[in-house]
Design a protein that fits this description.
Elements (H helix, E strand, L loop, with lengths): L7 E7 L16 E2 L2 E2 H10 L4 E8 L17 E5 L4 H9 L9 E4 L9 H14 L2 E7 L4 E4 L5 E5 L5 E10 H13 L7 H7 L4 E5 L10 H15 L10
Parallel strand pairs: 1-4, 1-6, 4-5, 7-11
Antiparallel strand pairs: 2-3, 6-10, 7-10, 8-9
Helix pairs in contact: 4-5
């Protein structure tokens, strides 16, 4: 579908194994209330009025996805991801026609708690400013920089520091070009914004909700379950997805 009608595509890299979770399966297939994290995430995205399609980049030998409720969804496409997150994102981008899909969002598979109002805020920001951006939250804790011995070398000024979240939203052709160029130059890419920064593209910080957590450690699974249940139960109303 054409982005001009307000229907956007989200690329979801889901080829990782999530070693830090110390589980027998990739973390995106761990369950909350008998539903996989990946299903929670993708269903949350597709339930937003402005999002019509999700491209999931799966591991080459993924044996779990076919048994999920996502497998036969006509609004979902799958591609083979790569070794690194950036490779999976690029694989997904290559499935998009930049003329038909001027904008694209990229969202972590292990962020099931993203709020609808934050998605709306990000999309509106990018369209109104005609450049890309990402959801982020200001750093609240005191930040320390350490040396290789894990001794503090300096306390960092946090007033201009932000935690980068997802989704991140950019023009499809610019993001594809930025990632391709950065990879060719050997630049380390940790997220889409880092690729865009390397080529000098503007990247706006859009304030998002701090409960848009990424599940990376075993304890995060319980926190995500709590957040999802709070959102589902509408407590409080102003903190619930629309």
């Amino acid at each position: 579908m054409n982005n001009s009608t307000g229907h956007f595509t989200v690329v979801v890299p889901a080829a990782g194994v999530g070693k830090r979770m110390r589980s027998s399966c990739p973390k995106q297939y761990l369950t909350i209330d008998n539903i996989t994290i990946l299903e929670h995430t993708v269903q949350r995205l597709l339930s937003h009025d402005a999002i019509s399609h999700v491209i999931i980049a799966l591991g080459e030998n993924d044996e779990y996805f076919p048994s999920t409720s996502l497998a036969n969804n006509p609004n979902i496409s799958c591609v083979v991801g790569g070794k690194e997150r950036v490779d999976s994102v690029l694989s997904g981008l290559k499935q998009l026609n930049a003329l038909q899909h001027q904008w694209v969002l990229v969202h972590d598979s292990a962020r099931p708690c993203v709020r609808h109002q934050d998605l709306t805020r990000l999309i509106n920001y990018c369209l109104e400013n005609d450049h890309g951006g990402l959801l982020a939250t200001p750093v609240r804790d005191t930040m320390k920089q350490a040396n290789t011995a894990q001794l503090v070398t300096v306390t960092l000024e946090r007033s201009q520091m932000w935690h980068a979240l997802t989704p991140q939203m950019y023009k499809t052709n610019e993001l594809t070009s930025a990632i391709t160029s950065a990879l060719a130059s050997g630049i380390s890419i940790t997220d889409e914004s880092s690729a865009m920064e390397a080529l000098g593209y503007a990247s706006g910080l859009v304030s998002g909700s701090s409960d848009n957590i990424k599940i990376t450690q075993p304890e995060d699974l319980f926190l995500a379950e709590f957040i999802l249940n709070q959102q589902i139960n509408n407590l409080p109303s102003e903190a619930v997805c629309e």
